[in-house]
Batch of 4 targets.
Target 1
Amino acid sequence: MKKLTGFIRELGKLGAGTIIESRDRKAAVSVISSACEQNIRVFAQMEGSSFQHDSTFIMIDHRKNLFFVDPFLAMGSGLTLVEGKSGLYFHFELKGARHGFDSIYRGKDNLDRFEVLKFDIPDKINAIHRRKDYRVKPKITAPVTVALLTEKKISKVGRASDISAGGLSFNSVKSLDSGLVIPALMKVPLEDLEFDVSLSIVGSDTLGLENSPRRDFSYRIRAQFTELGIGDTQRIREYVAFRQREINKLLG
């Protein structure tokens, strides 16, 4: 599969505050399904070409591993698609983020007597968005820890892979559904005591064993802080600022 050159060009245009996030197939299916339900406008381009072809998401077929779009409005502009060989880069906006992925052309079909184009559901999808808060990666030897409080039990302690004043990502033994709000105990290196936080789950990503801190921590949870007190917010901001200074010092 070709490189995401179009996606990287977009990233450069958006500036230094931009975050690129690569997500797995499960996320790709979810995002493309939402785009099809809302008939989101999508643009596609061939590798090495700056010309963008305009289309609309139509539907997704999970059984056949395909999604369908309208014929491109600019099919006559030097675009020749070869079934099973032509790879295109798709990009679109959904829920405040720009998404992009590569896919292979799988031919034409007819839906309700209208011609559509077929493409493979990708194995991964990327999102570009700007974060409101500066995000840092905790030091391995001085971790930010998170323990979820569910059903009057404390979960195994996970480590944050990144944190900002607005939220964090942390490793977990199980996947959590988006939209859940869960109480947790958190500890940052500048504090000796744990403090209570409330986490609104944004999503879960499956980790490969090579990316997991331990075999049983096989998920990365993305969450936002909710209902933080002034003191707790200040604790997190102070830690982020401290870690940012550490990183800047290392970078010289």
Note: The first strand starts at residue 18 and ends at 23.
Target 2
Amino acid sequence: MPVIAQALDGYRALGDRPGEAGALVELAIARGMTSDFRGAQELLGQALDGYRALGDRSGEAYALRILGIARGRVGDFTGARELLTEALTLYRALGERLGEALTRNDLGRAATGSGDHPEAVRILRAALDSHRRLDHRVGQATALLYLGGALRRAGDLAGAAAALREGLALSREIRNRSGETMVLNELGAVRLLSGDVEGALAAHRAALALADQIVSPFDRALSVAGSGRCALARGHRREGTAQLRTALGILRGIDAAEAAEVAADLAALS
């Protein structure tokens, strides 16, 4: 992150506005990787203004997409869908097929967050087909992750497990540790709902080890919360409650949308 910040200062000193806008987006992405979603949004707003002032429509679409992702991470799914729809419209007009497919991934995730699970599944299946036609493996892995989450919430546990198993194998094949961490946590949730408590716990523990390696407080919190739910399923109320409280503290500290779900779990125990 310090290197990107130095590059940003350099672009500003040179008056290089396209370079400045690009560096702002990259710095925002780096902030998001450390779970600083609020800070990321501020930088992305600056980048979006810069791209619009330059008349750079491709840059504008990219900034809109990343800003939409950041909005969704803090629970503003309505705002996320509006920004992502705007980005999708731009990508279509520009004929940028990969940008369109990636934006569909994010729109599907935002639809899931809004509770619109059938729409999320529809969007994500279309996104997955697009990524396969483009042979874009990172996009495929992400689409499979989000599709698994949407199917789980729609009640299709078998479909969710199949998508996640494929996504896990692909994430490992392309050595995407962040994606692997997220898939493992989602797979843990599916296994728990399917009655496989030990399998769920194993998935969350593996995700926790990876989350600590990549230094992701967000993924660490989801791993701890998942382990807490497993502890409760095994009848270990004190242990499970403590883990959920730890996860909630992390999620609230980074303004993550998932804090509401963990808070609801804790409220149900009181």
Note: The CA atoms of residues 165 and 234 lie 25 Å apart.
Target 3
Amino acid sequence: MLLTRFDLNPDLPEEFEEMLDTFITRDEDEVEMSAFFQAWAQIEAGRWASAEEIHLWGAIQGDRLVFAVPEGQPTSLQVRGNRIVLEDGRRIVLELMPGELVPA
């Protein structure tokens, strides 16, 4: 079975897909690895820069970590205690690290 780049990751940015195609089909002298990884790093930096930020408030209540969405923060996340449900249904569970806390 032949896998395409879309089978591997359908969310790849178009620029990265083009770079990957160029890199895979290149002659050895055409593209240096360092140039490829530098371009990849720039694309990733752009994705982080354009990502939506969602702010949460956190507090330690007894031995529990509790989060809440600040009033007026537009989000479709569901936050309950230390659990966050993402838009696609995945859940993030945040917990305190075991052991003693190190003073700041």
Note: The beta strands are 57-61, 64-68, 78-80, 83-85, 91-93.
Target 4
Amino acid sequence: MGVSWQAYPVPLSERQAHLGALRTVLDARPELTCGVVERRGEPAALSVVWRGRPQRLIEVGCDFFEGAWWFTWGDGRRITPVSDVAYAVALVVRELART
């Protein structure tokens, strides 16, 4: 008899799930492109740029503060709770447009 194997999906962390939701909305915008950045010893983050203008880069993370998950800028400042993905996108676009 052969051995039967079944693959199970690896569960995402809450951080990965929230960043994934944000990435989905950012990727839907034709002027933006983003990808996941992982550095040893640090939580994953999204790197976001205007297509064709990669000199301006924004990093967006996700951290747990005071009992809730928040999107954060690369320097750790809070952007908005993860429940407001649309507002996070608007702020990322506004920040990228500043240059």
Note: Confidence is low (pLDDT under 50) at residues 3-8.
